[in-house]
Amino acid sequence: MELPELPVLVGLSLLLGLLVLVAMAAAARGWRRSGAAWQRGADDQRANGLPLNKAMSTKKQKQQQRMSKDKPQQHTFTHRLLAGALKSHSGNITCLDFSSNGKYLATCADDRTVRIWSTKDFLQREHRSMRANVELDHATLVRFSPDCRAFIIWLANGETLRVFKMAKREDGGYTFTAAPEDFPKKHKAPIVNIGIADTGKFIMTASSDTTVLIWSLKGHVLSSINTNQMNNTYAAISPCSRFVASCGFTPDVKVWEVCFGKKGDFQEVVRAFELKGHSAAVHFFAFSNDSRRMASVSKDGTWKLWDTDVEYKKQQDPYLLRTGRFEEARAMPCRLALSPNAQVLALASGSNVHLYNTRRGEREESFEQVHGECVADLAFDVTGRLLASCGDRAVRLFHNSPGHRAVVEEMQGLLKRASNESTRQRLQQQLIQAQEALKSLGALKK
């Protein structure tokens, strides 16, 4: 076997050695440059009278300031009727719900928490809340149980219902415990609303296709309703728990009765009545507290108030009481809330909220740019004195001045027809209270 010639081996060795030396020299120059730069920076910091660690801390603060500038700033809003703002969430709030006893407000946000607020703090400077964490998901909808000992949420990623039980602690707070299992996944389209009947007999979920499901409290589907409305934009349970209603692409609101036997066993869901009168798709609707009134808003640019206290089993149709104009509804989806006594209608489009007197059909108050995003939810408290809205990281609370004016108008009319002195005194006292409330808000009309 022949070996390579000696000069060739020597040449290869010299070449490899030269390459190693060049690499080492380059690395050394880089280290010297970085060291000199660091030393110059340190010298500059000392020349400016700053200790080295303090200067580095200042640099870190500047970085944090730049990062904070990149974060979305909290939207600011002021108005003479603004009663307060609830600001503990770190993400956008998607839903709110008042408990039936009027003591609490539940909110959920994309920060993976549900917060329970005490309503007695609403007019105070500080607003307390209790936090329930949503593990590995976040809630888009939240609803209190009728006994206020639990709440349900709709999971954004899990696409199903989760139940949380509320247990009171000795210090007056609550602990929140999720049920061991979520409800089975049944819907095939995004959810538009959920609800619990005030009787505690059933739960409703509605999706954006044409499906409304009636569930038992244990997570079994009792009935599936096909609304035949092309798509659902909203659905809800009536406060009396007898009815489930839905609206969508068609120009009507369809109402069904959920029937139970004398022993509380589920029987069937039957068509009850419809609200007919709009000429375009219905965006939203709401019930009054006694379920005897309903309000709706449509893409035809109108809102309507209905008398639903009818004998529908005898084919009696609801009566149209009032029609008002709301041109904003032609261009974009709207939300609606009806005060418990049905005297005030709140309509939201974009980030604006408007209050109407349902007796006269007139717009009485307007709140512009209430939130940094579109209004996501809107509701009156159980007393009807406050209106709550959400649409960014805050819940804004408004005094319901049109509600006080409606009471003044009603009492003045009843006083004229009062037949005895005791009735007159009672009505006069209610009139004075409403007038004083308006005066304190600076909303008393001269």
UniProtKB/TrEMBL annotation:
<dbReference type="InterPro" id="IPR036322">
    <property type="entry name" value="WD40_repeat_dom_sf"/>
</dbReference>
<feature type="repeat" description="WD">
    <location>
        <begin position="275"/>
        <end position="307"/>
    </location>
</feature>
<dbReference type="InterPro" id="IPR042410">
    <property type="entry name" value="WBSCR13"/>
</dbReference>
<dbReference type="InterPro" id="IPR020472">
    <property type="entry name" value="WD40_PAC1"/>
</dbReference>
<dbReference type="Pfam" id="PF00400">
    <property type="entry name" value="WD40"/>
</dbReference>
<feature type="coiled-coil region">
    <location>
        <begin position="417"/>
        <end position="444"/>
    </location>
</feature>
<protein>
    <submittedName>
        <fullName>Transducin beta-like protein 2 isoform X1</fullName>
    </submittedName>
</protein>
<feature type="repeat" description="WD">
    <location>
        <begin position="184"/>
        <end position="218"/>
    </location>
</feature>
<feature type="signal peptide">
    <location>
        <begin position="1"/>
        <end position="30"/>
    </location>
</feature>
<keyword id="KW-0853">WD repeat</keyword>
<feature type="repeat" description="WD">
    <location>
        <begin position="86"/>
        <end position="118"/>
    </location>
</feature>
<dbReference type="GO" id="GO:0005783">
    <property type="term" value="C:endoplasmic reticulum"/>
</dbReference>
<keyword id="KW-0677">Repeat</keyword>
<dbReference type="GO" id="GO:0030968">
    <property type="term" value="P:endoplasmic reticulum unfolded protein response"/>
</dbReference>
<keyword id="KW-0175">Coiled coil</keyword>
<feature type="region of interest" description="Disordered">
    <location>
        <begin position="37"/>
        <end position="74"/>
    </location>
</feature>
<dbReference type="InterPro" id="IPR001680">
    <property type="entry name" value="WD40_rpt"/>
</dbReference>
<dbReference type="InterPro" id="IPR015943">
    <property type="entry name" value="WD40/YVTN_repeat-like_dom_sf"/>
</dbReference>
<keyword id="KW-0732">Signal</keyword>
